[in-house]
Design brief:
- This protein has 253 residues and is α/β, with parallel strands linked by helices.
- Helix content is 38%, strand content 25%.
- The protein contains ten helices and 15 strands.
- It has a seven-stranded parallel sheet, with helices on both faces. The chain has a three-stranded antiparallel sheet with strand order 1-3-2. The chain has a three-stranded antiparallel sheet with strand order 10-11-13.
- The longest helix is centred in the N-terminal third of the chain and has 15 residues.
- It starts with a helix and ends with a strand.
- The relative contact order is 0.11.
């Protein structure tokens, strides 16, 4: 197992159990405790774990929301596969919303060069990347920019969404479950996400498998409001079936 794979497994276990222990991890992953400590240090620097005596806990347990740059460094291969699978949901022409997020950001990077679309975003970095594409009409939602996620929120972003009607909204989330639906830590971002789904004929959720073990403060949609969930093969088939029973088609890329 490569270091990145091992660190992703450590993060998965921490989120599932709420805590990981150095000695137990070393035995279960067949490496030294020194190797595990280095892994935990790397994950702490990435902003997804916090070291505690004898182990580590996920930042979600401490009420922290990882910064965008930290989240962008985790599960990169899975996010790339999800983004490429999402291209099947892209209209030939027309309009789409691309929500702020690290997995939705990967979709921006793989958009076909020959597709003529109107793309609505609430992320200055995504707007900048898209604006260089001559075949795209880019609409940037205004408002306050949240430093942690670089997403625009509040009334100046909400008002335009109430007047828009797009073909597909490609959504990001921090947490998702059949019981609680889609959730995010910040109520202002939840309001924007809710309005994006309301403005779209179809909604597609792009989320890696770790998002399906977490629930956060603010709900913004039920699974019945989502048409397609695109995730990775790290989500087991039983969990995928549970999500599908709640409404959406589930694609494991």
């Amino acid at each position: 197992m490569y270091a990145e794979e091992r660190q992703q497994e450590i993060l998965r276990r921490a989120r599932a159990a709420g805590r990981v222990d150095v000695v137990s991890l070393a035995g279960e992953l067949d490496v030294t405790t020194e190797t595990i400590r280095r892994d935990l240090t790397a994950l702490e620097r990435a902003g997804v774990l916090r070291r505690v005596h004898g182990g580590a806990i996920p930042v979600e347990r401490l009420g922290f929301e990882p910064a965008l740059a930290a989240r962008d460094e985790v599960l990169t291969a899975e996010k790339e596969r999800i983004a490429k699978a999402a291209l099947a949901e892209l209209p030939e022409d027309g309009s789409v919303i691309i929500d702020a997020g690290t997995t939705t950001g990967r979709l921006v990077g793989v958009l076909p060069a020959d597709r003529e679309l109107t793309v609505v975003v609430n992320s200055p970095p995504l707007a900048t990347a898209l604006a260089a594409r001559a075949n795209l009409n880019v609409i940037m939602l205004g408002g306050r920019v949240r430093g942690r996620t670089l997403a625009t929120v509040d009334d100046w972003a909400l008002r335009p969404l109430s007047q828009l009607h797009v073909d597909v909204a490609f959504m990001a989330t921090n947490g998702c479950s059949a019981a609680r639906g889609l959730t995010t830590p910040d109520p202002a971002e939840a309001a924007i996400k809710r309005a994006m789904i309301g403005a779209a004929q179809r909604s597609v959720l792009l989320a890696d498998h770790t998002k399906f073990t977490n629930t956060y403060l603010a709900s913004f949609a039920t699974l019945a409001e989502i048409d397609v969930v695109i995730t990775d093969t790290g989500l087991d088939l039983a969990h995928a079936a549970e999500l599908s029973a709640a409404g959406p088609e589930v694609v494991r890329a």
